[in-house]
Amino acid sequence: MRIEQAHGDDVWIVAPTPGYVIKFKEIDISRDIGGAEFRKCFVNVCHCSQLPPPTEDIDEDTLATRLDSGDLGYRIPISIGEIDCVRDNKNDNAVKIDVLVNSVFFESRLAPPSSQFFRHFFCMVMCEAIENKNRLKMGDIEQMRIFKRPPAPVIVEVDENMDMQVYIML
């Protein structure tokens, strides 16, 4: 894995290690582009050692018990990449998103074939994080005033040769 320091000490540029791909056959991207449109979506679950692991290392039984009791406090630190457009095997447009987790967490809880419960839980956490990152608005949207007619121009230039007026609005 390659790491480059960028922008001082506040950012790392990391080349993640590939883990596995989650494919969604149809996601609704209409709110992002306007109009009803469905696309395939590929999520690359990757890992690196720079991202911190969860503060608690719990097994599937403990996680299931906590979820059954209503305790939703288990957190998995993840980094969500930008939405990208790629071509699938049929040369159709598809959505691609890279998701990054800690390498130790990945190897112990997501990589083993017997980790189906953790993978399903992680998929729910990841989908919520992607939705939150790509929300339509942040905070309350306030009312705005829009003039029905533009205000009177401050400067009016008259081109005598072409008999045209140019308005400069301030």
What does this entry show, briefly?
The termini are far apart. The chain has four helices and nine strands, in the order βββαβαβββααββ.
What does this structure look like?
The chain has helices spanning 30-33, 60-68, 103-110, 116-133; strands at 3-6, 11-14, 17-28, 38-48, 79-80, 84-87, 93-102, 155-159, 164-168. With 170 residues, the protein is an alpha+beta fold. It has one domain. Strands 3, 4, 5, 6 and 7 form a five-stranded mixed sheet that branches. Strands 1-2 form a two-stranded antiparallel ribbon. A hairpin with a 4-residue loop joins strand 1 (3-6) and strand 2 (11-14). The chain is elongated and about 80 Å long. Mean pLDDT is 82; it is low at 1-6.
SSE topology sketch:
Elements: E1 3-6, E2 11-14, E3 17-28, H1 30-33, E4 38-48, H2 60-68, E5 79-80, E6 84-87, E7 93-102, H3 103-110, H4 116-133, E8 155-159, E9 164-168
Parallel strand pairs: 4-7
Antiparallel strand pairs: 1-2, 3-4, 5-7, 6-7, 8-9
